[in-house]
Amino acid sequence: MKTRLCVLLGLVLILGIIVACAPAPTATPIPPTAVPKATTAPTQAPPPTTVPTQVSQATAVPTKAAQPTIPPTQVPAAFNWKKYSGTTIRVLLANMGYVDYLKPKLSEFESLTGIKVTFENFVEDQLRQKLTIELAAGGTSVDVFGSMTIQEGLKYEKAGWYTPLEKYVEDKNLTNPDFDFADFSKGAIKISQVNGKLVGIPLYSDAGLFFYNKELLKKCGADVPKTFEALEAAAAKCHDPKNGVFGWVNRGKGAAATSVFSSFLYGMGGQWVDSSGKPTLNTPQAIKAFQYWGDMLSKYGPPGSENNSWPQALQFFSTNKAVFWAESGQVAATLLDPKQSQVVDKVGFAQIPGGQPYAYGWILSIPPSSKNKEAAWYFIQWATNKEHELAVLKNGVPASRNSAWNNPQFKANDPHPELTQEMIKALDTAMPYMNPPIIPVQEFRDAVGEVIVTAISGGNVKAAADKAQQDAVKLLAGQ
Amino acid sequence: MEFKPPAMLPDLNDWMSTKASGTMNQSVVKVSPFSQFFRNSTRMVRTRNASFVAMMIPAVLIIILMMVFPVLFTAYISLHDWSAATVKSPQWVAFANYEQLLFSDARFHSAFLRTIYLTAIATGLETILGTALALLFHREFVGRGLWRTLLLLPMVTTPVAMSLIWLLILDPSAGVVNWGLRALGLPLGTWLNKTATVLPSLAMIDIWQWSPLVMIMVLAGLSMLPTEPFEAAAIDGATPWQTFWKITLPMLRPYIVIAVLFRLIDSLKTFDIIFATTQGGPGTASETLNLYAYTTAFTYFRLGYASAILVLFFALILAVSLVLIRLRREPW
């Protein structure tokens, strides 16, 4: 009996070993299959000489687009939208205002082209995780994906996950003449390029703005500040925590704070990395910026700002509890929505005092592994067409097309000309400084985040900055 | 030989019969639970061999596929430098990941200490509070069933939803706790929002949620205790305090130890509460080993390094569990 048991147990063990070994071969070849793709990507790249001409056209656009109609006379035949009818494409995007607008319209695209769309949208970080896992594993099912070049552009480009799009833009058979690539603003094209290559088509491009509560400002008798010193003085003057009013709100939650903080860092003469690519987190300018950020939040901000990100700041500002705030322009849509905000007619807009506005935005791209690149390109053209860009702009999303901003109907009915004016100004001067131009962006942001939390908690900023510098140097050396 | 029912925890049964029920069992030879299990199973094989094995195979296969293979694969990956974000094949680095973790990664060291700290306060207080609650609920009083049910609610609530509610309750400016403190004229707390207070606040949430589990387990033990020792103690004139320390607590020990074991392993692994409230913040002030591994794997995509963290974490949990199991067997 005992021997029989032994034999049976042995059998089970052998079976188990076979099973355990079976998945191993499929698990290990993942990276090798992905590697050739990375090497083929450069050969697909078209001559980059076309890019500068596109950009120079873009600068000339405002005058051209201001004229109400663009004569479509040169177009000989109607663009064939039905060419790829019957294909199914899979689109992965993050949750954002633009996506909310686009989702109910997908059936229009499907009936226009006959292409079926499987649409998946996620919270930003989840999208990043999903994309990285799917693309690194060599999957071929992603046809269109959204990304933020400032955050992950270099990483994705190095991994070979972007198909260069110049070829598609120029191809008359693939691109609808009404698409009008030259219509995209200069800033929007800037955030769609990585290493000079066009890697996506911009959905929208946003920039940092300064918000103030007109009523509270009037009550404490301060002016709209124009410099860092004036901002601190005005915040001190208006800070009234006994009555639940804070002079300043902003992000303090470590890495989450780095984007808006970049405005202050560059405004004070600091930078993330120097021209040779070496981190510069403990220069006197950077330390000054960290100290300023920490002091503003600990002295004039709500208690415990260390765990606050923009939703908490939005909460304070939209309920009349904060006087000043600097944030990405996109939050204006919430501040101006009477259902979500109590400051609809009290909020004022300006440029970040003394700061260098930062620009960022989301783009749509096609991975080289996609099997339906043409159908995917059709989707991108449709999603970023003039009609949609204009419609989202009306919803408060900073559009990436000049024709939307210059649309006479929009201009005539613009309920917030002050916001529009400041937004155009910010987009004009904004720089893609929000994150350092390196691959391990997130690790770098976490290192910076530690200094920000230390500064808010009243710790030794110099020591924290030295440590972050050390970590960042180590981080970049490891790449 | 006396009849022993087959039990989930043969070891516990063994211990109970030799320790708790007095002189009668002195002569029984203590058998290791392992050999007892095998004795039982051989007996079963003898009676219904083929079907027994056939029924066992799916379970064994699932264990191998879902548990043994992933653990071994994680250990294997931990010996590589593998960044999923740069599409490089995994590079064999032997023990370099471990070397870096153990000797030069300050973030790992702080995460380790935080994990121990959080587990120690949470489990310690949960045990004391849970046992106290069990003693209270062991008595008869009006509305006992209702109160017991109410106390069990935190345990059955969805952890993430509950954490988000706590985030609102503990908000330094708008939260109801600080509102109450302000109304009473007491100093306000910063709770989850400050480096210094974030870990105790998280422990507080954990205690609120999991003390009832300890209570249930100890309560089950209390209801199984024999009445004779208590009667004897009463006759001998023992004070309630003496009865508790000398009789109740020693007899409850196996149940308490099991409860502590459950809570200890769970506390070490706490992820949901922390992730939903602070994501390891402010900065990294509440980043435990679990969160550090998560960030390393799914934000930095350094899979080899994250695997190494998890292997060390696994070793820690295993060591703690072994110590506790030992502790349960040996007398105090």
Account of the 3D structure:
The complex is a heterodimer of chains A (479) and B (332). Chain A contains 23 helices and ten strands. Chain A is an alpha/beta fold. In chain A, the strands form two sheets. In chain A, strands 1, 2, 3, 6, 7, 8, 9 and 10 form an eight-stranded mixed beta sheet that branches. In chain A, strand 4 (193-194) and strand 5 form a beta hairpin. The N and C termini of chain A lie far apart (61 Å). Chain B is mainly alpha-helical and 332 residues long. Chain B has a domain at 99-329: MetI-like fold (Orthogonal Bundle). Chain B has helices spanning 10-20, 33-47, 49-77, 96-103, 106-138, 144-156, 159-169, 176-183, 198-224, 228-236, 240-268, 272-277, 289-298, 303-329; strands at 80-81, 91-92. Chain B has a two-stranded antiparallel sheet with strand order 1-2. Chains A and B meet through helix 1, helix 2, helix 3, helix 7 and helix 8 of A and helix 2 and helix 3 of B.
Pair of chains with the largest interface and how many residues each contributes: A-B, 55 and 46 residues
* Helix/sheet category of chain A: alpha/beta
Portion of residues within helices of chain B: over 70%
What is the overall shape of chain A? globular
Briefly, what CATH class of the domain at 99-329 in chain B?
Answer: Mainly Alpha
**Quaternary structure state of the chains depicted:** heterodimer
As a whole number of angstroms, the C-alpha radius of gyration of chain A is 25 Å
The separation of the N and C termini of chain A measures 61 Å
Quickly describe the structure.
The complex is a heterodimer of chains A (479) and B (332). Chain A is an alpha/beta fold. Chain A has 23 helices and 10 strands.
Distinctive features:
heterodimer; A: 479 residues; alpha/beta; D-Maltodextrin-Binding Protein, domain 2; 2 domains; eight-stranded mixed sheet; 23 helices; 10 strands; 12% strand; B: 332 residues; mainly alpha; MetI-like fold; two-stranded antiparallel ribbon; 14 helices; globular; disordered N terminus
